[in-house]
Amino acid sequence: MDDWIIEIIFSSTPQALRASKARNDRLPLDWKVVERRNGAALVATQTLRRKTVSSALSKAARTLEWIQRVAEAEIIPLSVSVRPDGTPEQVPELVTLAEIAIQLGVSRQRVQQLSRQAWFPPPVARTKSGPIYTVADAIQLQRVRETKKGNSYGRQTAERSV
């Protein structure tokens, strides 16, 4: 049997806070508040002894059902992850403004201008070199830019390479 770590992340809402205060001896959960780029989050962590990942996933689903029952609401988690104990957490792939500029087919200066727009995703971190974004945010950003009226950046990039 292996030890598995279940991690369920919720937005910090009154319902999630209510669930974090409930106790169940058969379902020991460790709760912590984590500051994220888009506000506080509640993280429920549980260590299990299971043979397979599928049995750990099944237990994660039952844990989520219990949390929702206690919260007296269908609170939707931001993420649910199951990993073997001792395995480090997955760090999302990160990109800079310069890499986003290449992806969009525009200059770095243009991406800096766009980053001031309300619809531009917030950075996950800031370094002395500049802001850092997740690849998922960059991909979503490209989709938003491609669907804006009068702009078809995907086509322009393809035409330039011809």
In brief:
It contains six helices and seven strands; from the N terminus they run βαββαββααββαα. With 162 residues, the protein is of the alpha+beta class.
Number of helices: 6
By DSSP, the count of extended strands is 7
Low-confidence stretches: 153-162
Report the structural category: alpha+beta
Report the average pLDDT across residues.
Answer: 81
Which sequence of strands runs across the widest sheet?
2-3-1-4
Task: Choose one word for the global shape.
Answer: elongated
Spatial gap, N to C terminus:
56 Å
Strand content: 25-35%
How helical, in percent, are the residues?
Answer: 25-40%
Order of helices and strands: EHEEHEEHHEEHH
Oligomer: single chain
Largest sheet: 4 strands, antiparallel
Radius of gyration: 20 Å
